[in-house]
């Protein structure tokens, strides 16, 4: 079974907000344009007045529409199949999923977030009160913050948590993300629930372009086989229907377990050796140098041709394991891992975990 293709025309895509540092060159260009604009101001002021008036009227109309949308009732279906209705978009949000937190930040909802989990690393949320982890949050702390919406991951294990919050009158949106379609549906829903639908649409366009650029850049290249190490002992990898599996395909690779029937399959070391991947990709967190050294001498792993020949690539665990708008950047990182002629958009991580995420931790991200 081949990897499921990423639906580049999916209408629920909501995308990625690009950011970057201003270079000296860009500052010089801006300074030049300031001079040109200053010299031309006197000549065009009369013409500009009429155009400015038209733009102001259009902006006022847009502002009125956005203001109306920000107070209108919102109804969405969450990933537990429940109808979630808010009297108006939530202004106080507790996100218990790091990827959902990243999504809300990308949509411009930073000021609406009122708490963080121990797994959230974004600087924008470090000042917020800590409510625990994704799977063990403090209900008492959450209730004390008076949220208008709680975002939690959908699982049979979360039913009691969901029912308790519902009984307390706190709206809860259950999110389950496995593949890229789930990512984009979640983005659209979170945009609606927080009053950021226009932002979600703009972000969607950017992400679609970013992923399409990655896909088209590798179309004529040889496709390497890849072992993506979710867990090293016992070995676990990402199945073809996960967002990681789909990004590997989009970025010009083929997972050696693209025939896996489950999302996070345990595989045998013997089968990994038999399938002999061209590249081994390892998500990293802490103690990278030590862990890579151990991997190279571990029974089974040391027998891989990719290990012996140095084709082991570390990638940032937070970036690759969190299905958020950052999947566009993750695709670029994977492309660099499999096709070294493309420079990586991020610095090589300094550390790597001894054990990568389990099934539950993959979901909670």
Automatic annotation (TrEMBL):
Basic and acidic residues compositional bias, start-end: 352-365
Keywords of this entry: Signal
Domain of life of the source: Bacteria
Disordered: region residues: 340-365
Protein source organism: Gemmatimonas aurantiaca
Entry's Gene Ontology BP terms: cellular response to iron ion
SUPFAM superfamilies: Helical backbone' metal receptor
InterPro entries with a match to the protein in the record: ABC_Transporter_SBP, ABC_transptr_periplasmic_BD, Vit_B12_bind_prot
The protein's name in its UniProt record: Fe/B12 periplasmic-binding domain-containing protein
Gene3D superfamilies: Nitrogenase molybdenum iron protein domain
Domain named Fe/B12 periplasmic-binding: residues: 92-342
């Amino acid at each position: 079974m081949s990897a499921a293709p990423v639906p580049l025309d999916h209408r629920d895509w909501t995308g990625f907000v690009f950011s970057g540092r201003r270079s000296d060159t860009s500052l010089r260009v801006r300074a030049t344009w300031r001079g040109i604009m200053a010299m031309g101001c006197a000549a065009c002021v009369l013409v500009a007045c009429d155009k400015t008036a038209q733009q102001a009227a259009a902006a006022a109309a847009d502002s009125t529409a956005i203001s109306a949308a920000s107070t209108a009732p919102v109804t969405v279906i969450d990933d537990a199949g429940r109808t979630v209705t808010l009297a108006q978009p939530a202004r106080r949000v507790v996100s218990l999923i790091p990827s959902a937190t990243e999504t809300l930040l990308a949509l411009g909802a930073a000021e609406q977030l009122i708490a963080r989990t121990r797994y959230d690393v974004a600087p924008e949320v470090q000042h917020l009160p800590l409510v625990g982890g994704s799977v063990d949050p403090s209900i008492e702390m959450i209730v004390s913050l008076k949220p208008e919406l709680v975002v939690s991951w959908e699982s049979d294990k979360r039913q009691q948590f969901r029912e308790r919050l519902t009984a307390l009158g706190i709206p809860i949106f259950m999110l389950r993300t496995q593949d890229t379609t789930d990512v984009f549906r979640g983005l659209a829903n979170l945009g609606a629930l927080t009053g950021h639908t226009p932002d979600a649409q703009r972000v969607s366009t950017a992400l679609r372009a970013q992923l399409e650029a990655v896909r088209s850049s590798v179309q004529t290249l040889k496709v390497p086989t890849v072992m993506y190490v979710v867990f090293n002992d016992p070995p676990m990898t990402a199945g073809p229907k996960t967002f990681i599996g789909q990004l590997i395909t989009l970025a010009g690779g083929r997972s050696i377990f693209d025939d896996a029937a489950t999302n996070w399959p345990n595989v045998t070391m013997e089968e990994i050796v038999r399938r002999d991947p061209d590249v081994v990709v390892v998500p990293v967190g802490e103690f990278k140098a030590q862990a890579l050294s151990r991997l190279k001498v571990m029974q089974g792993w040391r027998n891989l041709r990719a290990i012996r020949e140095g084709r082991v690539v570390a990638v940032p665990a937070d970036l690759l394991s969190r299905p958020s708008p950052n999947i566009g950047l993750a695709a670029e990182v994977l492309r660099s891992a499999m096709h070294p002629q493309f420079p990586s958009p991020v610095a090589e991580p300094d550390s790597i975990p001894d054990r990568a995420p389990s099934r539950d931790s993959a979901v909670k991200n």
